[in-house]
Amino acid sequence: MTDTPDTIDVLHVDDDPNFTELTATFLERVDARIAVRAASSAAAGLDVLADHDVDCIVSDYDMPGIDGIEFLEAVRGDYPELPFILYTGTGSEEVASDAISAGVTDYLQKGTGSEQYELLANRIVNAVDAHQSHRLLTERTRRLETLIDNLPGMVYRCRNTPAWPMETVEGEVEALSGHAAAELERNEVQWGEDVVHPDDRERVWETVQDALAGDGTFEATYRIVTDDGAIRWVWERGRSVRRDESVVALEGFITDVTERKEREERLERTTARLEALF
Fold first, then answer.
1. Model-level pTM greater than 0.85?
2. 260/237 Cα distance (integer angstroms)
3. Are 241 and 218 in contact (CB under 8 A)?
4. What burial class does residue 128 get, using C-beta atoms within 10 Å of its C-beta: 0-12 exposed, 13-18 middle, 19+ buried?
5. Residue 65: which residues within 8 A CB-CB, separation 6 or more?
6. Nearest Cα to 196, choosing from 179, 209, 182, 181?
7. Half-sphere exposure in the Cβ direction for 107 (13 Å, CA)
8. Angle formed at CA 77 by CA 142 and CA 48, multiple of 5 degrees
9. Residue 244 pLDDT more than 50?
10. pLDDT at 2 over 50
11. CA distances from 137 to 82, 142, 245 (A)
């Protein structure tokens, strides 16, 4: 979750200017972050949206010309995610159903007394907070997907057992291992038993478990056997995912380091020959 913005710009659309003025006074008194801009019709509200950024719309339903549902539908055409609260004195199950179908964020009937404004302010803050959280989560997901698409390797989540059965894998899975991502996710192929080189399995398992007993992060370099029988070196970095102090999964990244490993081995052989000569 993210913090609600310091200022919450609200567009209140209602054909009763006295009511919009009263509502603005109470809302801004209930929560100092709320700043209300009023419009006396849906058409005027659309004009405000064209010229100003707002965080939430509060609209009446029964208005001359364009009613609240039609206004909501017009807003959703250009602002599909903008919080929209239908705040109306004309309520019915049919109106509520139509509002939900049109994509309303919340539905609230006008009441009496100052408590209704406290309730409305709370609904506004909750709607804006949820919208901001969703927007940031969507952006983080998009950045993560872009990062995964450009990484020279695979990202995974697996269970912490010697077979390391995969729950999810993304990235260059087939290019790295020769196996399709779906084969690993369906556990038709298991990383620890079918991909990790037999001579490296015990060592890698012990390395990871020793690291998990420490700070929960690990690194390992080892060999894999691809689907066509080729042997490659990979480097893996990961961390534990815990619940109630128990490791429920591992998440990490695996990339091909065969060329680097072969260069290191050639250098070691050359160094050994030179030492033997001199």
1. no
2. 17
3. no
4. buried
5. 41, 42, 43
6. 179
7. 19
8. 105
9. yes
10. no
11. 15, 9, 26
